[in-house]
Structure formats: structure tokens, C-alpha cells
TrEMBL record:
Listed GO CC annotations: mitochondrion
Described function: Converts proline to delta-1-pyrroline-5-carboxylate.
A Pfam cross-reference name: Pro_dh
Molecular functions (GO terms): FAD binding; proline dehydrogenase activity
Catalysed reaction equations from the record: trans-4-hydroxy-L-proline + a quinone = (3R,5S)-1-pyrroline-3-hydroxy-5-carboxylate + a quinol + H(+); L-proline + a quinone = (S)-1-pyrroline-5-carboxylate + a quinol + H(+)
Source organism (scientific name): Equus caballus (Horse)
Keywords on record: FAD, Flavoprotein, Oxidoreductase, Proline metabolism
Alphabetized Gene3D superfamilies for the sequence: 3.20.20.220
Family from the record: Belongs to the proline oxidase family.
Name of this chain's protein: Proline dehydrogenase
Classification of source organism: Eukaryota, Metazoa, Chordata, Craniata, Vertebrata
Length: 460
């Protein structure tokens, strides 16, 4: 039986008395059914097994050959797909979101697309135009899922830039951005004007085909942002590899010139900053101050980062400097500094600056909640929290029960679309999966408590 959010969710507001740290001891697991807890424990243990993650695509193909598509699909739906994916149809997604809402959690929908087209079908403008249609449908679905948005009206969805523009063009733009610096020809203002006007854009460092693709890409980005703003949906742009990020940041800055202007209702386009990169704190400081000077709203999703192994391998093969922090502790320190910087900006700029603390790390979440209290930032204001669907529920549920705005990143789509996407994300997030041991321990404790007959009042 699902409990209503009116019963489970407290009213957001300032904490009475002094700040009290949240308890991430799994106590909020009593809100979940036994079947959900059992599946979560089994799937997280499977995902923590390195061979399964490394050879996931091959194992999926082998399973289909051995068991047949129907039985293999049924097993996936009952396990990995059911744990990490909202569903295939709009109705299935709606059911998942309604269940999250009863737990005081909010949806952050994500269209599962790969940044590197890997088949003959996934090339050319037709593939990107198809992704544009999927993104526009995601905007509509995000808006339709929440009949009564929260007090701040924040409906969020993820946007992957390389679903709408090619990685080859992004690498080319990145090389020129690094070479030319802040040139007028590759300025956000010029790209924003091209988005608005729709007139052909000519960049001297690009050939005719690249210029045409850039103009088409700008048109697609403009259409998504325009539709999202009309539907009151905020776009959180995913960060990717360092070989692409300067170009992606340029495109985000162009969108911000158009859609994050004063009087528009806060930032409609947010960028993602990866704390595991050495230069992130300086870039974040520079970008935040530039937005402040320009009077633009500023939206940030702050993550640790997911491409550590590949970034280091590429740097080794190319003989270039490793762009990543030397170890996990240095990444933690970087995240803490970036978090402190952004919370100070939120405190200073109010609704013109929004932040998602996208972290599974308990210490980072505690730091954020404590500083929010010290700075007088309301629980359901410009700062929110984000975790992946199916993971870190002991943190998400505790935050939601305390009245904070908490979003779960939710991929959706068919098995054929989502399973390869999930496997690649698992390969990129090995450290997160390895770090789920504490969650597994808490899940085991709650299941033992129920099996031993104590606390049978929890959901079945």
C-alpha cells in the first residue's frame, strides 16, 4: 500500500533550533516494500561484481542467445531494468514517479542516448533530429508528470548535448576554443544570435560541412530550450569527456545568453561541473562571477565525475597531463570547495542562482545541509539534491523526509535502448557501485529486521 505524500512529507521550512545532522542509518527504508528492498540488495550486489560490469554487453548478448529474447528480457525487467529504469511507456514512467512522490522524491528524467554513435544507423542529421524529437517528448512528459509542482515550481530534466550535436564537431570546437580563447568568432553572444535568427553561421576555423552541422545543432538546442521554457521545465546539461567539455560549455553559455536572462524566472539551462577535474573550482568561480556581472541567472549541477579511468588512460596514451585529481581524497576536497563556493553564491544571489548537489557521498550531503542552515537557505529553495534511481535510497529518503528537494535521475525507454546505456554508465561509475557496500549493509539490516518479526508495520 502506498502512503500519501501528505502523510510522509513534512512541510519545507527552516529547521527549529540548531542544525541537526541527518541520519543515514537506513531508518527511512521502512517506507519501502520488502520486495523492493530485496531486489535492490540483489541488484547492487550483482553490480558490485567487476566481471559483470566489464563484460555486461557480451553477457547480455549471450543471455539472449541462450535463453531467448523473451525470457532474457523478463529476467532483466525483474532485476537491473526494474531497479534503475522507470519503464518504457509514459504510463509506466508515471507510475514510477507517483511512487517516488509518495516518498517525497521528485523525477529528473533522462533520455538514454549514447554520445558516440556506434552503428551505421546512428550517423547523419536524421539521427540527431530523432533525438530532438525524443528530447521534446521528454520535456512534455516531465511537465505532465507533476500536476502540482513544488513551492519553487522546479521541474527538471537532463539534456545530453551530444545527442543533438556530433562528438566530432565538439572535439573540433574544443581544439579551437583552447587555441583562440575568448574570441568574438566563437563567443556565446554570437552563437546565441545565430540561434535566435536562424541565419547561417560561418566560423572560419570550420569547413562548410561543419558549419552547416553547427547551425543545425544550434537550431535543435534552441528548439529544446524554447519548448522547455514554455513548459516551465529546467534543462540540466550533462558533462562529458574533457575532449568535449569546452565545446559543450560554449554551447551552454550560448543558451544561457538567451534563456537565463533577468526576469525569465531563474536559470532554465544549467551546466554540470565535475569535481574530479583539477581545474573545476577555478572554472566554476570564473563562470559564476561572469554570470553575476552579466546579470544572468546561473544554474549548476555539481558532481564528482564518472569518466576517471578513461580520462587517465587517454592522457597516458596521448602523453598529456592527467586532468583528474590525484586520488579520491583530493576529489572530495575539490567537491567540498566547489560546494562551499556555490552555496555562497546562492546565498548572495538568491533565486538567480540554483544548485543541485548531485552526490551519493554522505559527508557532502551533510556539509550542504549544514551550510544551508548557516546561510539561511530554505530547504525547498534554490538548492536541491540528486541521486540515481535505484541507488543511495538511504540518503534520498532521509533528505526527502526532512523536507529537502530531492531528485532521482530516471532513465526510461525500451530494453534495447536502456540496457546498453545502463551497462556503459555502470562501467563509467565503477567507484559509485563499489561505494554502495554501505547501502547493501543497511538493506540487509532492514530485511533481517523484517524477517525476524520486528517492525512488521512497514510496507510489504
Amino acid at each position: 500500500m502506498l502512503w500519501t505524500c501528505r502523510v510522509l512529507c513534512p512541510q519545507a521550512g527552516p529547521s527549529a533550533g540548531g542544525w541537526q545532522p541527518l541520519s543515514f542509518d537506513g531508518g527511512a527504508f521502512h517506507l519501502k516494500r520488502t520486495g523492493e528492498l530485496t531486489r535492490a540488495l540483489l541488484v547492487l550486489r550483482l553490480c558490485g561484481w567487476p566481471p559483470l560490469v566489464t563484460h555486461g554487453l557480451a553477457l547480455q548478448a549471450w543471455s539472449q542467445r541462450l535463453l531467448g529474447s523473451r525470457l532474457s528480457g523478463a529476467l532483466l525487467r525483474a532485476s537491473i531494468y526494474g531497479q534503475f529504469v522507470a519503464g518504457e511507456t509514459a504510463e509506466e514512467v508515471r507510475g514510477c514517479v507517483q511512487q517516488l512522490q509518495t516518498l517525497c522524491l521528485r523525477p529528473l528524467l533522462a533520455v538514454p542516448t549514447e554520445e558516440e554513435p556506434d552503428s551505421a544507423v546512428k550517423i547523419g542529421e536524421a539521427w540527431y533530429e530523432g533525438n530532438l524529437s525524443a528530447m521534446l517528448r521528454c520535456v512534455d512528459l516531465s511537465r505532465g508528470l507533476l500536476e502540482a509542482p513544488g513551492p519553487t515550481g522546479n521541474i527538471l530534466m537532463q539534456l545530453k548535448m551530444t545527442a543533438l550535436t556530433s562528438t566530432r564537431l565538439c572535439r573540433e570546437l574544443t581544439s579551437w576554443v583552447r587555441r583562440l580563447g575568448a574570441s568574438w568568432e566563437l563567443s556565446p553572444e554570437r552563437l546565441a544570435e545565430a540561434m535566435d535568427s536562424g541565419r547561417g553561421l560561418q566560423i572560419s576555423c570550420l569547413n562548410a560541412e561543419q558549419n552547416q552541422h553547427l547551425q543545425s545543432s544550434l537550431s535543435r538546442l534552441h528548439r529544446v530550450a524554447q519548448h522547455a521554457q514554455a513548459q516551465r521545465v529546467r534543462l540540466l546539461v550533462d558533462a562529458e569527456y574533457t575532449s568535449l567539455n569546452p565545446a559543450l560549455s560554449l554551447l551552454v553559455a550560448a543558451l544561457a545568453e538567451r534563456w537565463n536572462r533577468p526576469g525569465e524566472g531563474g536559470p532554465w539551462v544549467w551546466n554540470t561541473y565535475q569535481a574530479y577535474l583539477k581545474d573545476t573550482h577555478e572554472r566554476l568561480r570564473r563562470d559564476a562571477e561572469a554570470a553575476d556581472r552579466a546579470g544572468l541567472a546561473f544554474g549548476v549541477k555539481l558532481v564528482r565525475g564518472a569518466y576517471l579511468d578513461k580520462e587517465r588512460e587517454v592522457a597516458r596514451l596521448q602523453g598529456t597531463q592527467d586532468p583528474t585529481q590525484p586520488d579520491y581524497e583530493a576529489t572530495n576536497q575539490s567537491y567540498s570547495r566547489c560546494l562551499e563556493l556555490m552555496l555562497a553564491h546562492v546565498s548572495h544571489r538568491g533565486p538567480m542562482c540554483h544548485l543541485m548537489v548531485a552526490s551519493h557521498n554522505e559527508e557532502s550531503v551533510q556539509q550542504a545541509t549544514k551550510r544551508m542552515w548557516e546561510l539561511g537557505i530554505p530547504l525547498d529553495g534554490p538548492v536541491c539534491f540528486g541521486q540515481l534511481l535505484g541507488m543511495c535510497d538511504h540518503v534520498s529518503l532521509a533528505l526527502g523526509q526532512a523536507g529537502y528537494a530531492v531528485y532521482k535521475s530516471i532513465p526510461y525507454g525500451s530494453l534495447e535502448e536502456v540496457i546498453p546505456y545502463l551497462i556503459r554508465r555502470a562501467q563509467e561509475n565503477r567507484s559509485v557501485l563499489r561505494g554502495a557496500r554501505r547501502e547493501q549493509e543497511l538493506l540487509s539490516q532492514e530485511l533481517r529486521r523484517r524477517l525476524l518479526g520486528r517492525g512488521l508495520g512497514g510496507p510489504r
